[in-house]
Amino acid sequence: MSMPSSLDSKILAITRNNLEAREFSELIALQGGRAIPLPTIEIVPKDPSAVDEFIDIVNKNKNEYCAFLSPQAVHVLFNHASRLYKTDELVSALNSRIVVAIGPKTKQRLVDRGIDVKMVPEKYSSLGLVELFSKMDNPDGKKILIPRSEASNEFVERSLTALKMVVNVFFLYTVRTSEITPVWKDFVLLLEQKKVDAIVFTSASNVRSFFEIAQKMQHNISSLLKNVKAVIAIGPMTNEELKKRAIHSFESSEHTIRGTVDLAKIILAK
User: Fold this and answer.
1) How many Cβ atoms are within 10 Å of 112's Cβ, its own excluded?
2) The pLDDT value given to residue 222
3) Could you give the dihedral angle defined by the CA atoms of residues 24, 25, 27 and 28, in that order, rounded to the nearest 10 degrees?
4) Helices and strands (H and E) in the chain: how many
5) Residue 24, SS3?
6) Degrees (nearest 5) of the Cα angle 107, 105, 134?
7) Helix or strand run (H / E) with residue 100
8) Which runs of consecutive H residues, i.e. helices, occur in the chain?
C-alpha cells in the first residue's frame, strides 16, 4: 500500500493561469490535492515587427551570448516569428550564438523550437545566471543580449555589467495585472475560511500583481495569509518581493514548480 501523501485533500494556490499552471495542477492532483490557478498577470507582447529588430541585433551586434530568463520570452519571440514567417531566420540567428536558458522549462521551450541551448545555471534563478558568468575565465567585454519583459527588475543587467560584460536588453513584452475573476472571489472566501494550505508565488511581478488585485478587492490579504501554512516563493527574487511586504515565506531550493511542490509536501507534513 502506498503512503498517503501530505497533500491529500489539501488546497494549494499558484499565481498562474490555468494553462501555465498545468504542470502544477497535475502534480497536486496526483497527490490527492486541489490546485487553484490564480490568473495574476497578463502578457502584452510588443508589435510582431519587434522580431525583425531582434534578429537584426543578434546578427549585427556580435553578441556572443543570448540569455532567456523565462519561458514567456521564448514564447512571445517565436509567436512573433511564426506570424511573420521568420522562424527559420530566428533559429539560425540564435544558433549562431551561445544560447543560455535560466532553467529547465525555458531550455525545453527553446529545444522544442530547434535551438541548441549551450548553458543552464546550476541554480535556476537570476542569481544562478549571474554566478554562471562570474565563474567564467574572462567575462570582461563579452557581449550578451537579453530579450525580456519590461517589468523585470534590472538585477541581471546590473550584475553582468559589474562583471564588465556589455549587456544589451531587448524588450519583448510588458505585463499588466489581470482582471478580478470569479476564481479570485472563491479564493479569498477560502482564505477567510482558513482552507488554503499553501500558495506558490512564481515571480516577483506576480507578487506585485497579487497584492494589487487583493487591494482592489479591499481585503487585508496580509492578515489572511497568516492562516496559510506554506507561502512558497519559487526563487530568491520572488522571496525578496514577499519579504518587502513582511510576508513570511519559504523559498524552494530547486527553483522549479516541482521544487515548490516538494517543499509544500514537507511543510504540510509537519
Assistant:
1) 10
2) 86
3) 110
4) 12, 11
5) helix
6) 60
7) strand 98-101
8) 22-30, 50-60, 71-83, 87-95, 104-112, 126-134, 155-162, 182-192, 204-216, 221-225, 236-244, 257-269
Residue bearing cell 516577483: 204
- As given in the structure block, the three cell numbers for residue 85 are 514567417
For residue 1, pLDDT beyond 50: no
As a 3-state breakdown, the chain gives helix, strand, coil percent values, each rounded to 5, of 45, 20, 35
**3-class SS of residue 76:** helix
pLDDT digits (tens, 9 = 90+) for 155-192: 999 999 999 999 999 999 999 999 999 999 999 999 99
Instruction: Report the alpha-carbon distance of residue 223 to residue 55 in Å, rounded.
Output: 48
* Bridge partners, residue 232, by sequence: 200, 250
Exposure string over 196-226, b if 16+ CB within 10 A, otherwise e: bbbbbbbbbbbbbbbbebbeeeeeebeebbe
